[in-house]
Structure formats: structure tokens, C-alpha cells
Amino acid sequence: MANEQKESRRTSSLNLSGKTALVTGGAGLLGPEHGVGLARYGATVILLDIIEDGLEEARQRVLNQIAEARVETAVADITNQASLERVRDEFEKKGMQVDVLVNNAALNPKMMDCAEGAISGTVEDYDMVLWEKEIGVGITGIFLCCRVFGSAMAERKTGSIVNIASDLAIQAPDQRVYSPTGRMEDVTNFKPIGYPVVKAAMLGLNRYLATYWAHKGVRVNALIPGAVFNNQPDSLLKEVSRRVPLGRWADRKEYQEAIAFLASEASSYMTGQELVMDGGRSIW
Ligand SMILES: NC(=O)c1ccc[n+]([C@@H]2O[C@H](COP(=O)([O-])OP(=O)(O)OC[C@H]3O[C@@H](n4cnc5c(N)ncnc54)[C@H](O)[C@@H]3O)[C@@H](O)[C@H]2O)c1
Questions:
Q1: pTM
Q2: pLDDT digits (tens, 9 = 90+) for 170-215
Q3: How far apart are alpha carbons 105 and 137 in whole angstroms?
Q4: Cα-to-centroid distance, 108 and ligand 1 (Å)
Q5: Are 141 and 109 in contact (CB under 8 A)?
Q6: Which of the listed residues 29, 86, 161, 177 should we mutate to test ligand 1's pocket, taking the one with most ligand atoms within 8 A of CB?
Q7: To bridge 266 with a disulfide, which of 14, 118, 132, 226 should be the other Cys (CB 3.0-4.6 Å)?
Q8: CATH number of 16-115+127-172+191-230+249-283
Q9: Contacting residues for 135 by C-beta, under 8 A, at least 6 apart
């Protein structure tokens, strides 16, 4: 009993004080929320994005939730190694070495962007320029981030990489949710093939690098989030919710604690794994 009491009072390993965490795609929908999760447990956060516009607003979104957060921003293209090395060197000069890398940037086609009746995302007409871009960001980009920041972690013999995959990394998109009739025959706006392909590839990279760097103290894990509510059309909201055992979409804040868990020593005996948080969608 005395031991149990002592145990319950031990310091939590869900602690990122003194750590620097870099979140790619930091100006997007989820990047700032990952920043909040990391800042809440004491990390200094760097939000990195290819676009400067939106980065300051993203920084404010973190500060609105964690007033005392330390949040930096950086502009870089993750498909360009030199651009990433510049960011790494600039922050190292300021005494900040990246201890946690969250590979969150992606080309994430929002399905509501397609005009009603327009045809998009078909395999037959899939734009090869888009295919190359998706592979560039979703595969080459995350590899380069791991190469630049992960190798530095390996040299220092400590670090954690969190790869943001998708439920579409482990299951096929059910295109019927985009159909006006619910029938596959009537779908005109398809979730493009590039997205699930790069997300599945991410899991291969996740396992490869986990074993490659395990003996150097760097852990590599993936989060598999489900669809996040962002004012999608009602019909889509309803169709997806029906396919989720919890009966709803995720709130954008619901991954914050998982990111902190994967980034910190709270997950110290975990590497190469996939944490599925999809409201149960993939088990149905
Ligand atoms: N939103 C969802 O419903 C959902 C669900 C499951 C998984 N995810 C995954 O979560 C992550 C974040 O999703 P989101 O909805 O916030 O996406 P988002 O499109 O809002 O943000 C992605 C960000 O990545 C940036 N980016 C793109 N190319 C880049 C490059 N070359 N270099 C640097 N930055 C670049 C974009 O500028 C953008 O700000 C993605 O990996 C996505 O696949 C999202």
C-alpha cells in the first residue's frame, strides 16, 4: 500500500521540459494543435511550413491555448534538403536542437473543394504532376526531415519522431461517402489515390527508421488519426459518422495528448508502432 502511494506520486514521464519540438505543416489545420500538445508539457515548439502566410496565426493559436508557450516559426520546403538544413543550423545557432520531430506536413486534398458535379480524383485521369507532388511531400519530404533532424538526434543518442499518418494508411477510402446516392456508380469526386499511397508508405518508413535508430536512442512512431471535423458538408459529415463506431468526426484538439505521449518518455518502450485514433472506424 505504501509502495502504491509512493508510485502514484512519482513524477510523470509525460514531460517535455527543456525539449525542442519541430512540427512540419505547422500552419495547417492540425499543426498548431500538435504544437499545443507539445507546449502543454513544456516543449519549445517550432512550427515549420512552406508558406509564411498563416504561420503567425498558427503561433497565436498555440498561444491562445497555452499563454506561456514558447513558439518559434520557420519557413522551409520539406522536399528540399538544403532548406531543412538551413532551419536546423539556424536553430542550432540559437542553442536549440530538435529533440522531437512531428512529420505532419502533407498534401491533404479536402474533399469539399470539388464543385458539385465536377469529376475529380479518377484513377484513369489522375494528374501525374499531382502524383509526383504527393510523393514528393508525403514520401520524399518526410524522409528528408528524418534524415536532417533524425540523424542529428541519433548523433546525440536521444530523440523521438512522430509520423502523422491517416486512417487511410490502413484502410481503403470508402468512396461511397462522396456519392450523392451512396452508390459507387454515382461517385464523381474521388479521394485521390496518392493520399492513401503515401500514408501507407509512411508506415514502412516508420518501421524502417525505428529499427535503424533504436540502438541510438531515437524512437519512431506513427499516429493514425481519423477524419477531423472542419465544417464539411452535412451529407459527408453524416455518411462518415455512420461508419465510425463512436458516431462522429474527431475534434481537432483530440490528438494533442497522443502527440505529447508519443513525443515524450511516457512512450519510452514504444517504437515502430502505430497508434490508431479513428473513433473505431478501422475495426468496422
Ligand atoms: N484533417 C484530417 O481530417 C486528417 C485526418 C487524418 C490525417 N490527417 C493528417 O494530418 C496531417 C495534418 O493535416 P491537416 O488537415 O492539418 O492538413 P493541412 O492541409 O491543413 O496542413 C498541411 C500543411 O502542410 C504544409 N505543407 C505542404 N507541403 C509542404 C512542404 N513541401 N513543406 C512544408 N510544409 C508543407 C501546408 O502548407 C499546410 O499548411 C496531414 O499529414 C494529414 O494527412 C489529417
A1: 0.95
A2: 999 999 999 999 999 999 999 999 999 999 999 999 999 999 999 9
A3: 7
A4: 6
A5: no
A6: 29
A7: 14
A8: 3.40.50.720
A9: 194, 197, 198
